[in-house]
Amino acid sequence: MSPSVPLKTLNNGATIPELALGLWETTNAECSRVVEDALDVGYRHFDSAQHYGNEKGASEGIAKWLSEDPANRRREDIFYTTKITEVNHGYEKAKASIKESLKKAESIKYIDLVLIHSPMSNREKRLETWKALQEAVNEGTVKSIGVSNYAIPHLKELLEWEGLTIKPVINQVEINPWLTRKEIVDFCHAHGMEVEAYCPLTRCKKFDDPIVVKLSKTYGKTPAQILIKWSLQKGFIALPKTTHKERMASNLDVYDFTISSEDMNELTHDSEYQVICDWDPTVYRG
């Protein structure tokens, strides 16, 4: 793995870089280039999804980069994630969609992590999807499995299911200093699950927040770097998104400073609930 990005160990023993490049809204046509650029600057973790429509481009970008220096670049040093979209929930649909995602990733041989993208179907379909994911792990084509946008009721439903043989390694949810989801985070950590924070940069909407501006001046860092560092110091796996190589490098340049505990407390707003993205599936109770 990239020496510049520390690794976390998941509950199945696999390791994952704590900083990734999110690929949401990156077209399939440009995804290969974006991934290659990110690998050049030091990223080793990429977050795709069936819904994004760029699984093939992401995989091909990884494969191309590896092929340029096979003696020194290894597949096992890259962590690639995709997610099963809601329309593919259910045992048969999930199995078929996993097979299709694997076909799109055939250039990199296997998928490191597959998540259920959201709980937005129903109990039967969610659990059937997990059954299909467990089978994929047992077959060796998928290394780890987890969930995304799961609230505590969805997590309990899965953890208490009699058919559970493989626990989720991760819950990926929208998290930022104004959407800390403390209850979900505490539940995940109590049950051995890591938490991935998507949209950690708040789509730039909080870059002019007075506290962020103040901390940027204090530490000589950009607002994006302050928000990424907040996620990392909170123990999250952060998934910032950009398609610009210079910003990729800047977002990775967060390991030469530490936000003080006082400043972390000032930046953290546990009592607020500011959803930046267009959806919040954690509130879904179907």
From TrEMBL:
InterPro entries: AKR, Aldo/ket_reductase_CS, NAD(P)_OxRdtase_dom_sf, NADP_OxRdtase_dom. Gene3D superfamilies: NADP-dependent oxidoreductase domain. The active site is at Y52 (proton donor). Coiled coil: none annotated. GO terms for molecular function: oxidoreductase activity, acting on the CH-OH group of donors, NAD or NADP as acceptor. Residues 19-201, 211-268 form the NADP-dependent oxidoreductase domain. The record marks K83 as: Lowers pKa of active site Tyr. It comes from the Eukaryota. Substrate binds at H117. Keywords: Oxidoreductase. Belongs to the aldo/keto reductase family. This is NADP-dependent oxidoreductase domain-containing protein.
